[in-house]
Amino acid sequence: MPRKNYVDVSRAEMEELRDQPGTLIVDVREPWEFEEFNIGGVNIPLASIREKRPELEPYDTIIVICTNGARSKVAAMDYCRVPEWPDKKVFHLKGGILEAE
Fold it and tell me: I need a labelling partner for 11 at 20 to 30 A (CA). Which of 41, 47, 65, 69 fits?
């Protein structure tokens, strides 16, 4: 089976995708970062992404974001490796929310 990859998206593409049914934004920053500033979605810190995976089951499309794109890239790669999610689409906000402003 070919390895699934995530797709890098711009802020504008992310805004378009987030309005689609079955789409969830996952912010993988620490809770204090999320509280300080966020662009919506759910906050699941990178260290918790595996244990919190069941919360993402109902969604077809996941957009992973963080401050500069480093942590979200790790999370996006992890989500692409979930064998039970062959049809889930995984997107990554390129450059993170700082770049995307």
Answer: 47
Long-range CB contacts for residues 29-38, cutoff 8 Å, separation at least 24: 29/66, 29/67, 29/71, 33/67, 37/97
Q: With 0-12 CB in 10 A as exposed, 13-18 as middle and 19+ as buried, what is 64? A: buried
> pTM higher than 0.70 for the full model?
yes
Q: Tens digits of per-residue pLDDT, 62-89? A: 999 999 999 999 999 999 999 999 999 9
Helix (H, G, I), strand (E, B) or coil at 19: coil
Q: Can you tell me the distance from the alpha carbon of 82 to that of 101, in angstroms, rounded to the nearest whole number?
A: 30
Strand 89-93 to strand 7-9: parallel, antiparallel, or no bridges (unpaired)? parallel
